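In this notation, each integer encodes one residue's backbone shape. One such record reads:

___
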Amino acid sequence: MSNMQNEEKKGFFSQIKTAVAKPSGYPSLSRLGGGRAAGFVFLFTFLYMLVILVIPYIFTMITSHGFQDYVTEYLPDFTISAGTLHMDDTFRYNSGDVYVYADSSTEYFEEDMVHILREEGYRKIALFARSNFIMYSDGSLQSSSYYGIGSFSREDILRFLPYLHLIMAIVAIVFYIFLFAGYFFSALIYGVLGIIVQSIMRITLPFGAIYKLALYSMVTPHLLKAVNSLLPFNIPRLTWLCRLITCLYLVFGIKYCKDQFAAGQFTGQGGPWYGANPSGNVPYGNGNPYGNGNSYGNGNPYGGSAPYGNGNPSGGNAPYGNGNPYNGNAPYGNGTPYNGNVPYGNAPDSNGNPYGGNAPDSNGSSYGGNAPDSSGIPYGGNATHGNGNPWDNPQ
């Protein structure tokens, strides 16, 4: 089975397997069509969202016997107005890797408190002070004041609870749109890095191929983030670790593209390298350019000059056969010139036969520069008698 057929049958999970465990297969991933690559990202980011957002939400619904009962039981009485939090008592909740603390008697919470709680094993942290709040989840930290979020209280939240599932569905859709678009945008940034890498490696790939390499280079880091969201602890420096892993996959992907091209292992798809631009100078196969913009086979140029066969040029100048030029000048046979100008040096007779610079008789026989008798027999510059035999002197 050809490489192209294998690539056409490379399914979703096969692409994941190659992206994660087989960097040497990245050249085949880079040759996949743009639609297939976009479809892969669409499905992959959807599954990623299910793992980090939808499944935890459903798990909370099940384990807490419904989110409404959960909020009613644990949410304290509070009011936010004029950018200030008001509470009668402090509130603290910690279960597993979740820690929530609210205290309106504390004016401001510092981010250092989050780092202390992370060292104690908490991965989801929410801190509410009188003038600010801090949210932390799986490596992402946000700190803000209450200004700009309006005024609301515990009763307002309870009134919205019947619509919670609808709200969460809208949140999930918006989150997915940003996740999907963000994946492509991040790949664009890594693609720029890929251009720098390929210039260092002295290989020229089209940006479309580099961009697809970047898309698949981000698969392993996203899987790592998904696993991290399910673990009871945080992987240290996860964000920077994921960036490093993406760069390594991208570099090795470009390297394997270079190695396979140097070994001549690529097969085209009716077009040049990766269906777009050549590597170095030119691509390969199926009548596409090869070596300095020229190609071979199917009547296409070869060796920088001209091809062979079927009346096409050969050897940099002209071809052979079927009355086409040969050796840079002219061909042979069928009354076609040879050796640069004309066949066998001069000009042919009416039948296309060469004669040596003079003229033949009506039967195409050469005579040596004079004229034949009526039978077409040469005579040597004199004249013949009636029966066509030559004589030496006129009678």
In short: The first strand starts at residue 78 and ends at 81. The chain is about 40% helix and 10% strand.
